[in-house]
Amino acid sequence: MYSLFGWKVAALLVGANVIASLCSNPLAHSTYDVNYSELKQGLSSSASIYFPEYEPFGAAVIRWSNLSTPTINVVVVPGTDSDVFVVVNFANKHHIPFLATSGMHGSINTLGRMDHGIEIRLNQLDGVDISTDGKTARIGGGIQSKSLIDKLWTARKQTVTGTCECVGYLGPGLGDGHGWLQGHYGLVSDQFISFDIVLANGSFVTVDENSDLFWGLKGAGHNFGIITSVKAKIYDLTHPNYAIDTMVFSGDYVKQIYQLANELWVVNGTMPDGLNNWSYWYYDPTIDSEKPVIAMYIIEEGVNVVNATHTKPFLDLGPLIHQSKNGTYLDLGQWTGISLQDGPCQETGNANPRFPIYMKQYNPDAQAQVYELFRNATTSDSSPFSDALFMFEGYSQNGVKAQGNDVSAFAYRSENILAAPLLTYVPTGPAVEQAAYKLGSKMRTILDQGANEGNLKAYVNYAYGDETATSWYGSQPWRQDRLRTLKQKYDPMGKFSFYGPID
Ligand SMILES: Cc1cc2nc3c(=O)[nH]c(=O)nc-3n(C[C@H](O)[C@H](O)[C@H](O)COP(=O)(O)OP(=O)(O)OC[C@H]3O[C@@H](n4cnc5c(N)ncnc54)[C@H](O)[C@@H]3O)c2cc1C
Beta strands of 214-253 (E only): which ranges? Predict the structure, then answer.
């Protein structure tokens, strides 16, 4: 919480700083040459305002990826839904750009287009209110995935969330949102029933299926407003127990592994509702000093041992390491290295670009070609990318496909695999940035050519940022037209255009 005294001092200091910079950056004037006491007076007592001179500011703007980050001059932490309404109207009145944040894991480089403005940090809006019939919940717009999972779990309930414990719930959900339970229920966004949202014009409205905006908010939702809360479907906890088999292979088996995955789950079969498969490539010299390994995770719900029909074909290939575990849904984050304690949940200062692509199936030849590039990049002595990770996510798609292709702005329900290299590096300057871009783009192009499906299909929530709106939201003209019409109607000035903007 800020003290009124501290806030006044901060405002004066900021004013002094700004006078010096007005000539060089006239836009900066619009951020500071305003009376923040006017904003403060309109906010609830549980709201906070942070200026750069005071410590909470630094912690409030730090992001998971340090590449092309937004420039923030002031952070406002709303305490209530109406505070969001107040701050958007204040920003509009003074022509100040603003950006909502929840989990701070957004990394698309279009965020860097924000060259000044207010961060509206939604973390205090983290309530979960379960309806009396137990079928829906009102969920705060700033809640983290893990917090939502835990609150529902206590009530013996669950819903589809992102898998990583530290990402926001709505950050992923507005761009569709993949999670362990999607095989049953569809995407995170398929659970949404209504949104309480502050729109670009400052109005505070509820959007449900009767509004044209409802379709766009589910898949391209970062473009239209700030969601203070969402009403979403929730479900009884029917299969709390889970089992996982982790097999770590030599990279020599790259073709056979993905051929098998195709045969078992994609080309000759489908991934059952309660099964998910991920694989990671990474260099771990303690296992193989010469090349990156391939770790396969086969995760099954409602069992204590993963069914041998899924594991035996892989075990027959002879993994270097094989481990079986069982526990509950709550263990999945730790088993797959994405719990609150794991690396991906820490802010390291690294740049973390990804180059995502959706694919219908694996192309084993393309996988092998990309593996070679990845091997060179992670093992050569002078490479800055030795900590890179290549992710292949094979979620169950049944619940996603059951919804029908056109129900939302998410265009890629017919795809089965989400792949992305994560080229984590220490951001030492443009040379390494360009090297990462070149390598990531090259690897993605090989997979894209191997998939041979035409327009690149990229998950907006993993996107690098150089992709086009047709790659994020689908190339069919009707999709682009519908999104452009919504954008023109609800955000004609492009106030919500820092994250995967619709053209
Ligand atoms: C380690 C890691 C694991 C991931 N795991 C998954 C996963 O399992 N499934 C998946 O689908 N994706 C996953 N992602 C991708 C994830 O969807 C995006 O990174 C997403 O942007 C993260 O949202 P956030 O709230 O954490 O980040 P933020 O940077 O806080 O938010 C991202 C953007 O969302 C918008 N936003 C957030 N909250 C609101 C709101 N209430 N109203 C309006 N706009 C809002 C803003 O435009 C903001 O710029 C993962 C990413 C990482 C880094």
Answer: 225-233, 235-236, 241-250
